[in-house]
Amino acid sequence: MAMTPHVQPALWPDFEHTGPGTLAGRYLRSFWQPVYLSASLARGRAKPLKVFGEQFTIYRGEDGVARVVADRCLHRGTVLWTGTVEGTAIRCLYHGWKYNAGGQCVERPAERATPGHLQIRTYPTREWAGLVFCYLGEGEAPELPVLDTLSGDGELFVTAPMRPFNYFSQLENGLDEVHFNFVHRISRFAAQGMNAEIPQLACEETEYGLSRTSTRSGVVRRNHFLMPNANSAILFGAIRLVWRTPIDDHSHYSFTVDYFEGTAEQKRQWKAEQEKQFALIAEAQPAAQVAAAILRGELTLDDVVDHPDLLSVQDGVALKGQGVIANRQTEVLGQSDHQIVRMRRLWVEDMAAIAEGRPRRQWKWPRRLEMTTGLKQAETA
Ligand code: FES
Ligand SMILES: [Fe+2]
């Protein structure tokens, strides 16, 4: 039987599964990844950490340094995050084995013999912009990319909403400016005039990923895709940098840093506004639940336009509507999807290198990102 002409052949590799041993998982692990909110990790506390389908223990030593180590104790395998932090070390709850900051077992209180060579895995961990980053890959960790654009004396507001669908759909959504006109047709974007017309899209490859533009009535909005899983844009007066980090194949965190520069009073007002909005979102029915009710046909998006997290509800409907894991093999892509296709191709080249044991391309994030809002001057105030 002849193939339907618009159906694409199976072109794409598996971007979606990122557990241990998967190709996309090995690829993402070859970069520093944000894994936790700095503010959620108190000094002297240990917590469970799940990313890329793997379980870890994260703790902040009494020296203030965040550390990521193995999930389980070597002795009889209980989880380490229920243990106690002692200085820079962690002690297992069950029989008191103690592991130092390097992961070496340094005490076994009920044993006569010294621990010898007993070692749990530890992972390079750093903090920047209110996030804990971890390197879960093989070999030596590369340099952590740090942007001057977010390192001035501006105000930071950092969140990590969990989304109950595959990270790659959310990553692609960040390269899909046309959806503003439809998914967000009633929204803060609409109030800014961002979806009065369908934008003209363009992008160019850079040493960090893609520089993207969308043009509406001659006004250019410029933002960036940073390899492999981050986007940056100016959003509602702040610079936003967001990473999509898989928790497992069915859910992910959007680690979101918003950075605002202004006078002391403007910064105070902006921060108060973010906190107020965050509190409203915390009190409301979670965006994922509202999206699920819409997907079940019980509500429509027009019924929930007053939800404080409306953008997340709207994206949640569209993206979970693609499936918890979207099927990319049967899509019918158009020219308006070309930024997504460019991004996938960059991934394909890197993943092929990893699969063949060749060095992948070394991406270089810039110190500064140049961006424009895409709003006419009067609307940016
Ligand atoms: S299981 Fe950790 S000390 Fe026994
Ligand atoms: Fe969106």
What secondary-structure arrangement, pairings included, does this model have?
Elements (H helix, E strand, L loop, with lengths): L22 H6 L4 E5 L8 E6 L2 E7 L5 E5 L13 E3 L2 E3 L6 E2 L5 E3 L14 E2 L1 E4 L2 E4 L20 E5 L2 E2 L3 H7 L14 H4 L8 E6 L3 E8 L2 E8 L3 E6 L2 E11 L2 E10 L3 H20 L3 H9 L14 H12 L16 H18 L16 E2 L3 H4 L1
Antiparallel strand pairs: 1-11, 2-3, 3-4, 4-9, 5-6, 6-7, 7-8, 10-11, 12-19, 13-19, 14-15, 15-16, 16-17, 16-20, 17-18, 18-19
Helix pairs in contact: 5-6
The structure holds FE2/S2 (inorganic) cluster and fe (ii) ion.
Please describe what this structure looks like:
It is a single chain. This protein is of the alpha+beta class and 381 residues long. The protein folds into two domains: 23-134, 3-layer Sandwich (Rieske Iron-sulfur Protein); 148-380, Naphthalene 1,2-dioxygenase Alpha Subunit, Chain A, domain 1. It is built from eight helices and 20 strands. Strands 12, 13, 14, 15, 16, 17, 18, 19 and 20 form a nine-stranded antiparallel beta sheet that branches. It has a four-stranded antiparallel beta sheet with strand order 2-3-4-9, with no helix packed on it. β7 and β8 form a beta hairpin. α5 (287-295) packs across α6. The longest helix is centred in the last third of the chain and has 20 residues, at 264-283. The radius of gyration is 22 Å and the shape is globular. The chain binds FE2/S2 (inorganic) cluster and fe (ii) ion (FE2). FE2/S2 (inorganic) cluster (FES) binds next to loops.
